[in-house]
Specification:
By secondary structure, the chain is an alpha+beta fold. The chain contains 2 helices and 8 strands; from the N terminus they run H-E-E-E-E-E-E-E-H-E. The protein has a single domain, classed as Beta Barrel (Lipocalin). Helix content is 23%, strand content 48%. The longest helix has 21 residues.
């Protein structure tokens, strides 16, 4: 019985972390390579990075899985030099800001883009 409770609790925690991310878009100004206003959109199992100047064309698309506060990302396609090796990040939401911390990622470009600044809730600002 304890085993089933543990598995249910683990699943609920993963669901809560994922639900917290997927309920809204997140924006930040990141260097890719020059400062660019961007937003992240989390769908069921995909995270997409968009430039606010081109909100219908993803700059990068990644599959993600969430377990507690840990995200595992795998590049699907995009403009960065990153390969499709899994990247692992800690993602926390505090004071309505999303912050990433790299746990394991061989792609410096992605690390720098994600951890450069906290991500705030998306505001359209006329882009969408």
């Amino acid at each position: 019985m304890k085993k089933y409770f543990f598995l249910a609790a683990l699943g609920a925690t993963s669901f809560a972390a994922k639900a917290q991310l997927t309920t809204q878009r997140w924006e930040a100004t990141i260097s890719i390579p020059s400062p660019t206003e961007c937003f992240l959109q989390f769908d069921h199992d995909t995270m997409k990075l968009f430039s606010k100047d081109m909100p219908t064309e993803p700059v990068e698309s990644m599959r993600f899985t969430a377990a507690n506060d840990t995200l595992t990302l795998v590049k699907l396609d995009g403009q960065s030099p990153c390969d499709n090796a899994p990247a692992v990040y800690k993602a926390t939401v505090k004071d309505n800001m999303l912050q990433f911390a790299s746990i394991a990622d061989a792609c410096d470009v992605r690390v720098n883009a994600l951890i450069e600044t906290p991500w705030r809730p998306y505001t359209a600002g006329g882009s969408q």
